[in-house]
Amino acid sequence: xxxxxxxxxxxxxxxxxxxxxxxxxxxxxxxxxxxxxxxxxxxxxxxxxxxxxxxxxxxxxxxxxxxxxxxxxxxxxxxxxxxxxxxxxxxxxxxxxxxxxxxxxxxxxxxxxxxxxxxxxxxxxxxxxxxxxxxxxxxxxxxxxxxxxxxxxxxxxxxxxxxxxxxxxxxxxxxxxxxxxxxxxxxxxxxxxxxxxxxxxxxxxxxxxxxxxxxxxxxxxxxxxxxxxxxxxxxxxxxxxxxxxxxxxxxxxxxxxxxxxxxxxxxxxxxxxxxxxxxxxxxxxxxxxxxxxxxxxxxxxxxxxxxxxxxxxxxxxxxxxxxxxxxxxxxxxxxxxxxxxxxxxxxxxxxxxxxxxxxxxxxxxxxxxxxxxxxxxxxxxxxxxxxxxxxxxxxxxxxxxxxxxxxxxxxxxxxxxxxxxxxxxxxxxxxxxxxxxxxxxxxxxxxxxxxxxxxxxxxxxxxxxxxxxxxxxxxxxxxxxxxxxxxxxxxxxxxxxxxxxxxxxxxxx
Length: 509
What we know:
Keywords: Thiamine pyrophosphate
Number of strands: 16
Number of helices: 19
CATH class of the largest domain: Alpha Beta
CATH topology of the largest domain: Rossmann fold
Distance between the termini: 58 Å
Domain Thiamine pyrophosphate enzyme N-terminal TPP-binding: 1-54
Mean pLDDT: 91
Family: Belongs to the TPP enzyme family.
Domain Thiamine pyrophosphate enzyme TPP-binding: 317-463
Helix content: 25-40%
Pfam family, one: TPP_enzyme_C
Largest sheet: 6 strands, parallel
Structural class: alpha/beta
């Protein structure tokens, strides 16, 4: 949320092991983290003692810096180096501290270290940018796929999109780099995406990748000219064949391109997909604005939208709720969207909300979780109560692991072991010392959200929703076939599928 260093502590053994999932999230999403991990005393290392594990080995894959401190005099310099490495490589730095060293006082004079860290600035190559200008001017149907690298260039992106008449599609963690209701915005791409985004990608003749390492290349166009802009040269051409690579800051690069490029008069492609996106929003409203019970997840997002402040932070868990939030919440550029993007860790919604409120105490924080994701870390709601962090946690309670059920069905299988036990999360919130609201009818949804937003206390809104699969904006033939298979299997299982009698001379296949 801040780009600044996160610091975590643990004891040896199980404490250190528990850090791994969060640290892999940091690694995948390029967040600088310092770990100070305990270890058994030095004279016990290698003796298979109580709680001893090989710390350097377990952190080897996740860390950009991974060292064990062997003397107290080393500690200041090693901490300094670990922090610098975490910032420079945007990753996890681990220092393992045996218990006896932690207890010692530094006796000798230690080397002084500077506390200043200067991040390098990569200036984009003018020749590459000029080549990009040539391709952009020739293109009739350009499209932009923007990622988190565009978060510091929101105004420049909007101006660039308008100048070259290119619709904008985003990766999931980049939600908010352009307002969802901006006329040039087409939403997300892929399984969580919109139909206009899918179709525009199929239709384009120039793909501009901006600050993204989008992994689902099957949703990208085949054999079109590609320009990639990224501050990390290693990302350029990593996943998609690139004709022009610009290694540089998105903000500076777009500002230069906006100065060099004339306003495009070829706006047919943009206008075509503006109309398609307007139709898409109208289709979405049909589900969002229903007032029926059982409650649909789309209705919940629509009502959350009404209480969301202009600078709200959304901490979104992994699962079906990810799809509903990505597709139906209309983000403003002044709001933030927090999620476990590259690792896709369930259970991230509540700790993400707690961290957001700690980092930005004056901003509204709303957590969106499925019941499966929330129960993975629900005990941390006590932490929110302990520190009086007024977060609003909205739980989409369908009593199942919905995304896994959907994925099983999309593969043509019957859902297996995805059901969860019924649980009253509102009562749990009250038992923890927070506010709890149980919503079983649509009429209860709006007043519960408004009440939670008005109280200065941690709150849980437990919404009983209808189980609904998050159908992709565009279904593939294989997915349609698989759903058909799954439907037939269900009918067989229930004994309701009646086959016609076999006529003489014919055999069933």
